[in-house]
Batch of 2 targets.
Target 1
Amino acid sequence: MYVIEAENLSKTYDDVPVLRGVTLRVAQGEVYGLLGPTGAGKSTFLHLLLGFLKPSRGRVRLFGTSNLMAAHKRVGYLPERQIYHTRYTAQEYLRFIGQFSDMKPALLRTRIAETLEQVGLTSASDQQVSRFSRVMLQRLGLAQALLHRPDVLLIDEPTSSLESAGQQAMLELLVTIRAQGQTMLLCTHYMDEVEYLCDRVGILVRGRIAVETKVPHLHVPATSAVIHVDQLPPDLHTRLSRISPAVHCKERMIVLRPNNQQVQTTVLRDLLDAGVAILALEPLERPLEQIYLQAVNGEAPPNAEVLPLSLLSDQVVSPSTATRPSGTGDTLLKELLHRHSSAGTAPPALPDEPAAEE
Amino acid sequence: MPSMLRFLRLMLFIFLDYYRSARIVIEVIATSIFFMIFLRSGTRIIDAEYFFTVSSIFIFGLTLYTMSVMLNLSDRPQGYMLLARRLSRASYLLGFYSTGLVILGSVYILMSLATIVLHQPVGLTVGNWLLGTLPLFLNVSLLGALMLLLSPMVVSSGWRLLILGLIALAFSSNFIGHPILDTLPTTVTNVLAGAQTILSWPLVPAFSGFALTLSRDYSGSALVIIIAQVSLLVTLLAVAVYAFGQRDLIFTQ
């Protein structure tokens, strides 16, 4: 049984389609990121899940039931806008919210204290909500969402109203919650949040999930790479250019577009053999950014692990069998660099090590 | 039982929000001014009939204000945070409505107490007060229920216009005089008269209730008026709850 199931979900306002046949499923313990530009229909999707809106077509199920009201006791909701009743203290507000979830008084007292501590609002528990800063309001929002220990958290743009320090603090809080195995559906237009927090991502464009993929697959190297070198001798320049049309040489850099393991290995081997100092090897674009831009522009997804308009099951995605581009985390590269280092040459700079899948 | 408890807590939550917003000051000031002008001793002899006449008009006016504020408060995005809990849409809507009635009822009781204690109006015993207050408060509830039904979050603007149009048609005999009617074809006047008769039928309990408040004469079939008022109230609330349940929740404030 999935925690969230949406099948062919469509929503139209005054003949304007906002969602057009969204299908997605979120399993227990999974963190799903719904990524999309402003106006893509992310909040509408959440409001359909919460039963605030009625689908024009399709259906929604939470915990296997289409009685969304009955599922509310298992759902925590953090809205995008900070829409709280401000004439209460944080503690009073949470007490009422807990009572509306049928929490028993003794349990509620304990949970309020625990949750306020969890979100870092203990010292402000008796402060009126109207005096809260934006960060504090967002923490209060998270507190009310977590108060009844929901089985799923529906989070709408958790950091969009915050400045950078607040964004970082909120993300860290969400990471802590995620570490406890919390199922989440995160709607955002920030790619960083998705990469940081989610197991799976669906890119919502013009009311449709244009692309869906597992986030670990985005940690594979990019399809294009650039090798920065100290100085490329003219003869090596010619030799490298002959390896493949994908190799584009300039005086201090070699672009591999499209990149693949064989080309990259050959190029690196030739560079090391020629004693050229490799300064850095890095992707040209982040995979998610690349996928996102392609989805928004209506182009085909870039590789086999990223499937358009589909639900990726484990059977569909098989990293071991898929053809993968090679890149910075490659074992061969490490081996070559180690050899280079052992030979007494200064080691080239390594970019941040990605979560390579060997 | 838990749902009743949730409902009562919601009413407390709404009332505290209303009270802390200081909006209640308007009710207090309005009531004080009304009391000073119309229920002050020395200006005239205050008897039961006078008390019910002036207090009915005042409380209807206050109902328009208090219910408008309540409906505005309910039509705010803050409502999403409540409705994401175990509160049904019906509880949410009726919570605001009932809190409004509690405020109006409290104001009316305080005003009545002050009048009785300070002026001892002729013929206004506790029993008499209860007999006059029951149909009066049912009428207040009816007015509130009609406002609830006509609020933007309950019905769309098309339905609202239709309902208001029907109400206007029911009252049309008051503002379409005989000179105008005489110029219309007989068929049109017959249709208009029929429509007026049919549409004014739901208004009968309200008008009869007002008459009962003034007369407090429960002999004969007067109880039917109370039953009709209660039936009309239940119908209006049921339609409002049903319509609210069917709509997309897009709070506007």
Note: Chain A touches chain B through 25 residues (CB under 8 Å).
Target 2
Amino acid sequence: MTADPMAEIREVFFQECEDQISELEMGLLRMEIGQGDAETVNAVFRAVHSIKGGAGIFALDTLVRFAHGFETCLDRVRSGRLAIDPAGMALLLRSADALTDLVRAARNGEGAQDARAQALATELERLAAKGDAKPPSAPTLPRAAPASSPLRTWIIRFTPKAALYAHANETALLLRELSRLGTAEVEIDSSALPDLTEMDPEDAYLSWTVTLATHHDAATLRAVFDFVEDDCDLDIFERPDFAFQDWDNTAAAESAPQPMPAAAIETLPPHPVEAMAAQAESAGTVGATIRVDLDRVDRMIDLVGELVITEAMVSQRVLEAGLARTSAIAMALEELEALTREIQDSVMAIRAQPVRAVFQRIPRLVRELAAQTGKQVRLVTEGEGTEVDKTVIERIADPLTHMIRNAIDHGLESPEARIAAGKPAEGLVRLVALHRSGRIIIEVSDNGAGINRARVRQKAIDHGLINTDAPLTDDEIDNLIFLPGFSTASAVSDISGRGVGMDVVRRAVQAMGGRISIASKPGQGSTFTLSLPLTLAVLDGMVVKTADQTLIVPLASVLETLRPDGADIHPLDNRTAVLALRGGYVPIIDIADVLEFGSRIGQPEQGVALLVESEGGGRAILLVDEIQGQRQVVIKSIEANYRAVYGIAAATVMGDGHVALILDVDTIVSATRESSRLEAPRSLSQVF
Amino acid sequence: MRPGQAIIAADNPMRKLIAFRVGRQEFSVDVTAVREIRGWTSATMLPKAPRYIRGVINLRGAVLPIVDFALRLGLPASEPTARNVIIVVQVGPKQIGILVDAVSDIITLAQSRIQPPPDIASETVSDFVRGLIALDGRMISLIALDLVLPPDSAVAA
Amino acid sequence: MALTVLTVDDSRTMRDMLKHSLIAAGFRVLQAEDGIDGLDVLKRETADVIVTDVNMPRLDGFGFIEALRRDAEKRMTPILVLTTEADPDKKSRAKAAGATGWIIKPFDPAKLVDAIRRVSA
């Protein structure tokens, strides 16, 4: 129990708001592309309605007021009184954005920027007023409503008692009276009818259900039964509008309450409630969910990590004991290993979330960017359901935002330029997520002008990033945009961000053990491809040995491994040397030396060289004694019980139970490049 | 309540200590700080660490730093063997392993039996020794472990 | 024996809030997320009073009340409807469906408790 239950409920409210906002955004987007059925509109309405309701509890007045105006508008749409044109749609989308901001402001206890919300509220009010002015815009309505009161559908359930008949009343008369009031449909329930032998001729056994579409109100209907009120069981209630839509799919979302379609009279529809219950049941089997405290899941991931390590240790011991691989115990262990991996995958899957959480923020970004740049942009997203570890989700948002900015700002042309190039004025940005060989791939593509290679090349030369005569392939030129400080926009754009370019994206991606690449076709556009691990709890590493120490080098930063030829190694002084590699020079870093592990065995040419690339894009050769293989390792924190260690990112536990350190390639490469007085022209280190 | 306990005044509670040997000296830590005691296994060296950090070992999946207590106190030390002992202690949020020669005793005594450390201008004494205990002709130092790890700010750049 | 109140609302905030207020007043509280869920809960449990929201997915408040009123056993259970504003149309619809009374959100816990006691007496 927390001391302050209200604070807890408040927290629940804001969490719920996030869900509601997602629901709202998704629904509006579906409506925008014309896929908004009745349930979508209902869900959108409910989302805003719930936010308003909760906000009311906590007296968040600004939020309540705005949500109220928004909700009123949506209610008109829902009831079919208001048709939404593209301009109206845009208003609804902007209102959703504003609502998001108001919720955030309320959560942080900030004063909301009232001006924008106020302006939108006024617009919403105007839009809602349209719905008031117009008569029900239901072209499908079979006939014009003659009366001023709306047409409503009533259910009249009527079970006469024996007394009714005893009082000489006639059911048939009552039913005829009812049917005069509108369009009636009568159903007789004879389930209470006993066998003939048991039947009491004086008793009543039948009940009637009348479905009546009428302009009259309940009082008028009840008046029909004035004389028999005490002699029958009578239930009169209105059938809710939505029930029509739910059981009869042909009823359009915008239709106002309408009479029973004539065709439907012959076959009685299933009871609305039952139909819905059945629908709900089938929906329920798809995605029953529970909420679990994240700490519990993380604890489980830790434990499974232990299990994997322990299993590996046992396997190793068994092999060391000289047991044959075909022995029963070795085979049982193999089975155990397979099971362990499966458990690990399953546990990781618990923490996996669809990328939807990140993708959902993109439409708003695109709208804002389009408005800022004056470009027309259509966004298409695919694979929103693709799942990836929560930690990855949290960290892809920023790079993705940057890539989208880049695609709209630099990729797409202005509408005029597009038309001049014979393309539609509206540019296309595609955002796709998919799984490929155990990694998640995210593609951001545009159908803009593609990379202007001549300009990129010139810029790289101007910045001293490449030599004037560097022989580069198209692909290599395209990839120059990832170099630090490179920016293709002639003027530093406000949108793609204050002079930071794709190098920032690449750094962020590499920090996650990911890779980014670009493919571009002049005049047709560019595609950026992100490849990321599915989780940050494990890492693909290269196991190396130097000065008798086992180290893990993250595979993501290793470009290639080579055996250096002595003739290519050029000492610069007694501590530093460079390796001549395909026309450039790369600094050599002796890992044992840098980490002060003592001296490495033998000469540089007797070691193994790893060509690595740091997050900053700097390249270097890491010299080690031997490569022992590659494996996936579970990442363990050193800082938890100790402190940050120079040149080391984290640790892992190897199969023999010993701790192996995971190299922090970035720190080592950048520190070496700074300290080694290797500040020769940058081109030295850029090997293509 | 057992009758014996009644005579202990509230301001003189019982303390339970684990005593261990490093070289020829005897030290002790409060038993509540001790998580477990285990044998020595070879540690993985940490780059640019102080000499008294023997490295890290795997303690059921956690990475545990090992402090060679003799080196930490500036006493002569030899390479640890399988006969050495690691006392795993909790220091704040962290668990660390203290490498010692052997565990010598588990002592229960009244707080009043612990004498204040002498006023000696020795950094080691002021950093670690919190009290002295005279027991059967032995002298046992009660130590505190808050300063046993190097401070975070000392991370080499 | 404490009165059992079933609260039906799709908003967790509202459910928590209702629960908090009702438990404080000494009621036993059952919870459901929407009409369908509410009907489901009532298959296993008995409620003395039902408090339901109107706008809910799957089965809304009107449909829920209607379904209950059709059930011989539950047609006598008092049902209070939670609505956000005093919308006369909603009120009459709720009444027609068989609601016993209504409460306007955001509700005053004391008034809610009062209303529950009144209809359950």
Note: The first helix of chain A runs from residue 5 to 32.
